[in-house]
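Protocol step 4 of 6: record predicted structures for both targets in the notebook before any analysis. Target 1:
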Amino acid sequence: MPAPGEPSSSGTDPLALMLGYLDYLEDVTLRKINGLTDDQLRASVVPSGWTPLGLLKHLACTERFWIRHIFLGELVDFSWPGDPDAEWRADDADTADSIIGFYRGERAHTRQTVVGLAASTRAQRGYLEDGAGQPPTLAWVLGHLMYQAARHAGHLDIARELTDGSIGSD
């Protein structure tokens, strides 16, 4: 099966477009780390200290937070109590396969969750950082996830180039 490309430029359904871009960015993100050794996946090339594997773990946690915790209102472990930076770290118990599986699982859950929902569907929980604590719409949540995924795919572009010189257009 070919890798997903960008959604069709003739698309008009906003949710289908956002999900299409999230699928595309999932593929881009996983291709950016493909071929790196375990040491390279766990090594930081930036002053802030994040690693490619840690960034992927963060993306999975971000999707879990917005879809499961905020949108669905589930009581899920979306972070690590007492250590909010832990979602950025690949600990010894974290393997590349387990973090990739976690990321793919959260992406699949998002796709399953939104089937048949309207863009205007409100989340079960509010979000205080929006100033009012109002439950965001599904359109806003997916837009935010798309923004995060694109931003971090760009970060991986830079990390990959600094790690082994690989560059790519997507």
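Target 2:
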Amino acid sequence: MASVAGKILLIEGKRADYPNFYAGLSRKGYDVELVPNGNTALKKLENVEPHLVLINAASMRTSGRRICQSIGNQNGKLPIVLIADKNAKNVDELEARIVLKLPFTLQKLLNRIRLLIPTDEQDLLIRGPVKLDVENRWVRCEDRHTSLTPRLVSLLKALMDRPGEVFGREELFRLVWETEYTGDTRTLDVHISWLRQAIEEDPRRPRFIKTVRGVGYRLDVDNSDQNIRSRRKLSRKK
């Protein structure tokens, strides 16, 4: 049985012509509390403390506006994810943290809600404010949470494994792309740009991923924050 990945309060109807997400989320290890409407959800919140509320408004023939407002009034810090019909209007103005319009895949939903659920930091690679989940492929940096492609994970991990050290462009390209051909490393520059968009407040003036002119790139972070993996190794030796 999959380990519990987080607790979700799911408000979902039973329309046969619209997708339901209870079974899929449960299979992925989430502890899902299913309720049929907003009033039941408000009563449930008096006794349970989910990590987030998922409102499948499309399955209830509603915009989700009243439910979002009611939950926000009861617990303004609780993240809300809203699933809306493809023709729904003005849903981006609601109090939901994330709005997804049908159709979309279960994997897309998983990628979005994963960023809102606290993670055991023992499973993260941490350098300064940059936190990388290699297995689930996402990064957190201060108030930014972003899913990454496998290649971007490999690139960021390489930089995080040797913070403060300058990587030559050819060396970094060989390491991440696992090739000896380094005749054209422009794709590396594109991926660095994408990483900056993921973790930097201002990608044009990066604080963390620095360009070393004529050489390559370097990750600048505050090394006073220990790498979680190092702490785990030390604890195992005791």
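Step 5 preliminary note on target 2. The first helix runs from residue 22 to 27. The first strand starts at residue 7 and ends at 12.
Proceed to step 6 after PI sign-off.
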